[in-house]
Write a structure and sequence with these properties.
With 251 residues, this protein is α/β, with parallel strands linked by helices. The protein has eight helices and four strands, in the order αβαβααβαβααα. It has one domain: Rossmann fold (3-Layer(aba) Sandwich). The protein binds zinc ion.
Length: 251
């Protein structure tokens, strides 16, 4: 699916012809997502949203960045779990700056970054700002996390059985699990979805991290009541909302 949008499938001549279109960079993470989801959740979500948006705006999609900035204990479990392979902030910032520079060097002027990992935002913004100072009005760079443009009524529909824990704690919980059930059901171990009480958000950070601050499963909020149908509800709302943002931002 979406093979004709992926720049890695294009020849250089085909790629060159697309330079007036929007180029989308999906950014995810490699991070623990509890006993029922794989480490690649954030990368899959970033890619799958990117393909659906790309199709609607005649955009092209670059290979995803599959590593992200350090997850924190109370928004992903942090370094307490094997399989969370984090980048230092400066590394992520440099990666994003290098890729933006290369897109611009190849003639692209409309760049959409789609992130699916909560902690990436500050370092992507820093990369965007520093690049933008070089390029000025010639190049427009846009960032959205997939959850930001979700309409408020969708939250009520998706959290009809369990309370919405807030986006930081919505990790391996109802939205991510439902989206994975919709995008990539074979990667979801439904029998491993556990009953869990929602963790309370901490009002401080302590390093070294306290080992008992996160439940041993790595699940911060319940994924019970997740379904592919809820995944579709989210996608059918978020994709057109991001398309609207893109059209407004790039004119
Ligand atoms: Zn995630």
């Amino acid at each position: 699916m979406y093979e004709n949008l992926k720049i890695e499938n294009m020849t250089w001549q085909e790629f060159e012809k697309k330079k007036d279109n929007v180029i989308i960079l999906p950014i995810g993470a490699t991070e623990q997502h509890g006993p029922h989801l794989p480490l690649c959740v954030d990368t899959i979500l970033a890619q799958e949203f990117a393909y659906r948006i790309g199709e609607k705006i005649d955009g092209v999609v670059a290979p995803a960045l599959s590593y992200g900035y350090k997850s924190k204990p109370l928004s992903g479990g942090g370094p307490l779990f094997p399989g969370t392979i984090d980048l230092n902030g400066i590394t992520l910032q440099s990666l994003v700056m290098d890729i933006i520079d290369e897109f611009v060097c190849d003639g692209f002027t409309k760049i959409l970054i789609l992130s699916a990992h909560f902690e990436n935002e500050a370092f992507i913004i820093e990369a965007m700002d520093l690049c933008s100072r070089k390029y000025g009005d010639k190049v427009k760079i846009l960032l959205t996390n997939w959850w930001d443009p979700m309409s408020p009524d969708i939250i009520d529909k998706v959290f009809d059985k369990v309370p919405f824990p807030g986006w930081a704690l919505e990790h391996a919980a109802v939205t991510e699990t439902s989206l994975m059930m919709y995008f990539s059901p074979k990667l979801v171990k439904e029998d491993k979805i556990i009953n869990t009480d929602n963790v309370s958000p901490a009002t401080y950070f302590r390093y070294p991290i306290e080992k008992d601050i996160v439940p041993p499963t790595g699940v911060l909020a319940s994924a019970k009541s997740s379904s592919a149908e809820k995944g579709k509800i989210i996608v059918d709302n978020v994709v057109p909302n991001i398309v609207k943002i893109v059209k407004r931002a790039f004119g």
